[in-house]
Write a structure and sequence with these properties.
Blueprint (H helix, E strand, L loop, with lengths): L1 H35 L3 H7 L3 H41 L5 H32 L8 H34 L1
Amino acid sequence: MMRILEAAILGIWMGWTLFMWFAAGRSFAAVDRISSSPGPEFEKLIQPLGPENTRLALRHAASEINRKLFGGYGWTQIALGVILLVLLWLETPRDAVALTLVGGMLALVLVLSLVITPWMSSLGRSIDFTRESASEEVLRRFWTLHGAFTGLDIVKLIIGLILLVRWIAA
């Protein structure tokens, strides 16, 4: 029974990861879609801003939404990881492999949530309205952090899949 609860928590964790990848990508696609064909009511409302300022404002809104979502995503992952780690620790006999894998996933989440996400959010805010004039160094740093986040999140998901497959095969 405990393994079912553990697998459910792991499944929620991995499912939320996939959802966040989808949501983050769609938010900027929505900005482009709205900007290219805003609809008559919205077009009338944004006409004083002009197309470039409208797109900039919408991209900023999408960025802020993503920053809030990823902040919550990080804290929720920490909670799920701690709960799962405690459940695994309370098992008798202990599954050392599962403890190690979940511990690794939680370590990655701590780095993502407490280091990379805040840096990326701060840099993102600094370039939201100055993307065209932002220095190459700032843009490079932002995209390096973005790539590191994505890569580590993929590693975390793969570890979770390995653990889930291990549990299913047992």
